[in-house]
Amino acid sequence: MNLISNFPPTAELQALDAAHHMHPFTDGAELAAKGARIITRAKGVTLTDSEGEEILDAMAGLWCVNIGYGRDSMAEAAARQMRELPYYNTFFQTSHVPAIELARKLAEIAPGDLNHVFYASGGSDANDTNVRLVRHYWAAKGKPEKKVIISRKNAYHGSTMAGASLGGMTGMHAQGGLPIPDIVHIGQPHWYAEGGDMTPEEFGRARARELKAKIEELGEDKVAAFIAEPIQGAGGVIIPPDSYWPEIQRICDAHAILLIADEVICGFGRTGQMFGSQSYDICPDIMTVAKGLSSGYIPIGASIVCDEVANTVAEAGDFNHGYTYSGHPVACAVALENLRILEDEKLVENVASGTGPYLAEKWRQLAEHPLVGEAVIRGFMGSLALTPDKAARAPFAAETGTIGLIARGHCFENNLVMRHVGDRMIIAPPLILTKSDVDVLIERAVRALDLTLARIKDEGLY
Ligand code: PMP
């Protein structure tokens, strides 16, 4: 039964969706056969679908709805700005109040001397900016040959040509002839899957030292920058060993290369501080931000740039780069209201010392489930590794199929949005999550894990 009457019945919507809507990262034929779940509205941490079912969104949309859904003041900020000045560009020696105010605000909250903002519409295009910006920077310093960017396998930095090239997803590189030139990848600090007999700390240091080895192999005079997410998100919420980032920082400090922290997921509170870089004592030269900057209410992203890079580029003539919607006034106004809410409601504190520790305790207890090899969490980013053999940290055999997909299906059927990355289950809930929301989340997650285990036992896969 439809609880809301002003849209067509679900089956009709699904048929239209299948006929005309191409979905990102989706097997189109499979979805067309099955029919998409149609989300019609949302409030707080709860989604409602076209059948009136209420779903706990433990992924905050796509890791972005940090302030939760259904905020009137966000709609009002957008409406006010649309009435005042719905659009103007920032290309030809013009500016406007929302772009200026948001840049000032970002400079205030960003660590170190990250005082300059170049706007984009999301994380991918902000990372495209970064590729051009760091190469232009080194060219302006008289070193045009310093253009290689080192990234990591299984990183995610977006879906544009440059974003997907920076990313280390083999499935993405396989489509469309990627990566583009002068982007290379080193290993990821994924101890659970790749650490073998090393301790996490040994492994973290070893993986960080791959950066030094790569710089030496290529020659420091060829390398422009290293880019990394403080915690890999789309790669499966891979929380690096504590030894990893200090070693990376030391290596970056010892070499003349720029450090880009991709804060698209970690930024705006998710790790328990405003930025993931602060949680890991990273001193980036550039931060990529998007998602939590507007809590997904409107598309906006940015590169937040340090004094040295911004000032050098400013002195080097035209930077031939920009987007129609760089610094879109409505997006900036909405982002400002979002940051006001984050601060006034102390949502970052909720992650650090309110709901966060309770969520962490309950989440880590999931490691006791027979199907779970590890349950890790930092702030409001957590993951579970599903395994047939806990002691060996073993993955499921390839011919078993993706058990994470089965688990994700059971979560969804039990009105919980958790995502799977292969056989890792991940959460990144809105930062407004309460302890009673945690109880619901964990109860549904356990049920989904039980159902998954029962099913794979039935099917002889376990
Ligand atoms: N960087 C990171 C770390 C991301 O997680 C994402 C999106 N998941 C992006 C970049 C790309 O952002 P967008 O989808 O807004 O282009």
Total domains: 2
Bin the helical content.
Answer: 40-55%
Low-confidence stretches: none
Strand order of the largest sheet: 4-10-9-8-7-5-6
Largest sheet, in brief, is: 7 strands, mixed
Distance between the termini: 38 Å
The small-molecule ligands in this entry are:
4'-deoxy-4'-aminopyridoxal-5'-phosphate
The count of DSSP E runs of length 2 or more, i.e. the number of strands, is: 15
Cofactor: pyridoxal 5'-phosphate
Protein name: Putrescine aminotransferase
Keywords: Aminotransferase, Pyridoxal phosphate, Transferase
Pfam families: Aminotran_3
What does this entry look like structurally?
There is one protein chain. The protein has 462 residues and is an alpha/beta fold. The protein folds into two domains: 37-67 and 348-458, Aspartate Aminotransferase, domain 1, CATH 3.90.1150; 73-344, Aspartate Aminotransferase, domain 2, CATH 3.40.640. Helices cover 41% and strands 16% of the residues. The protein is built from 18 helices and 15 strands. It has helices spanning 10-20, 28-34, 60-63, 72-84, 97-109, 123-140, 161-166, 170-173, 191-194, 200-218, 244-254, 276-279, 307-314, 329-344, 347-353, 355-365, 403-413, 435-458; strands at 39-43, 46-49, 54-57, 114-120, 148-152, 183-186, 223-228, 258-262, 286-289, 301-306, 372-378, 381-386, 416-417, 419-421, 424-427. The strands form three sheets. A seven-stranded mixed sheet has the order 4-10-9-8-7-5-6, sandwiched between helices. A four-stranded mixed sheet has the order 1-2-3-13. A hairpin with a 2-residue loop joins β14 and β15 (424-427). α4 packs antiparallel against α14, α16 runs parallel beside α18 and α17 crosses α18. It is globular. The two termini are 38 Å apart. The model has no long low-confidence stretch (mean pLDDT 97). Bound molecules: 4'-deoxy-4'-aminopyridoxal-5'-phosphate. 4'-deoxy-4'-aminopyridoxal-5'-phosphate binds at residues 62, 122-124, 127, 156-158, 163, 229, 233-234, 262, 264-265, 290, 301. Belongs to the class-III pyridoxal-phosphate-dependent aminotransferase family. Keywords: Aminotransferase, Pyridoxal phosphate, Transferase. This is Putrescine aminotransferase. GO terms for molecular function: pyridoxal phosphate binding; transaminase activity. InterPro entries: Aminotrans_3, Aminotrans_3_PPA_site, PyrdxlP-dep_Trfase, PyrdxlP-dep_Trfase_major, PyrdxlP-dep_Trfase_small.
